[in-house]
Structures are given as structure tokens and as C-alpha cells.
Amino acid sequence: MKKLIIAAIAIMFVAGISHAASFTGIGFIDVQKVFKEYKETSKAQGELAKQEESFKKDFESSQTKLADAEKSGKKKDELEKMKKDMEEELAPKRDTLLRLNEQLTIKLQAKILDSVKKVAKKVGIEVVLDKQVVINGGMDLTEMVITELNK
């Protein structure tokens, strides 16, 4: 009789675990890995790098002009005006660079989110979290999301 009760409890325990495992509906992705392995990320980084290089050249050129002006003995107020003018000239380029970075990031995030939703729907996952917040459990969807993105 005792063995029968233990067997019944074991069956209920195993059934409960398998039911809970199939019912969780929680997945996770490694967001950093997805960004890194998404082929559009490198294209966006290349586009941003070109703009950054252009801005860097302009900035270095203005710094050289300012240093040359200091060496030539220009007065402090002239140097301050020159510095202010250069900052005003560089500000729109810096703002354009920041806007481009923001636009590219938003575009990538939207595509990643769309792919996460598609993959989650395919495998029946209701909630997808970042890997960093998951301590235990859940289904890793990272590779499936990367595959979906890079189709």
C-alpha cells in the first residue's frame, strides 16, 4: 500500500512538473548577442563611423587652427571668439551625428522587436525577457531571433 501511495505521488509530481514546464510561456534573448550578430548592425555602425570620422576631422582641424592662433600670440578675447565660432560651426554636425545614431538605433531596435514577436508567436511564448534578468527557467530564443533577422 505504501509503495502505491509513493508511486501515485511521484506520478502527480512528474505530471505537475511537465505541465508547469509547458505552461510557462516565458522566453529570453541575449540582447547584446542579437545586436552583435544582426548583419544590419554592422552596416549601421559603418554608416555612423563614416559620419564620426568626418566630424573628427573637422574637430581636429578646428583645434589645430586654435593652437596655431595661440602660438601666433593672438589676444585672449580673440581666441575666445575664435573658439566660440568654431563650436557654433561644429554644433550642427555634432547634432546631426547624434540624430543619426539615434535613428539607426531605433530602426535596429524596431526590427529586432518585430523578429522577437514573430519567433515568440511561432514557439508559443507569451513573454520574452532580456537574458540578464532571467535567473532560472525560460526558453532561450536568441539564435532563432538572429536567424529570423538575418533572413
Textual characterization of the structure:
- The chain is mainly α and 151 residues long.
- The protein has one domain: Protein Binding, DinI Protein, Chain A (2-Layer Sandwich).
- The protein is built from five helices and three strands, in the order αβαααββα.
- The protein has helices at residues 2-23, 31-37, 39-71, 76-123, 142-149, and strands at residues 26-29, 127-130, 139-140.
- The chain has a three-stranded parallel beta sheet.
- Helix 4 packs across helix 5 (142-149).
- The chain is rod-shaped.
- It starts with a helix and ends with a helix.
Give me the number of helical elements.
5
Strand percent estimate: 5-15%
Radius of gyration: 28 Å
Structural class: mainly alpha
Query: Which fold does the CATH topology refer to?
Result: Protein Binding, DinI Protein, Chain A
How far the N terminus sits from the C terminus, by CA atoms, comes to 59 Å
Please write the CATH class name. Answer: Alpha Beta
How is the biggest beta sheet arranged? Answer: 3 strands, parallel
Q: How many beta strands in the DSSP annotation?
A: 3
Write down the domain tally: 1
Q: CATH superfamily name?
A: Skp domain
CATH architecture: 2-Layer Sandwich
Order of helices and strands: HEHHHEEH
Q: Tell me roughly what share of residues is in helical segments.
A: over 70%
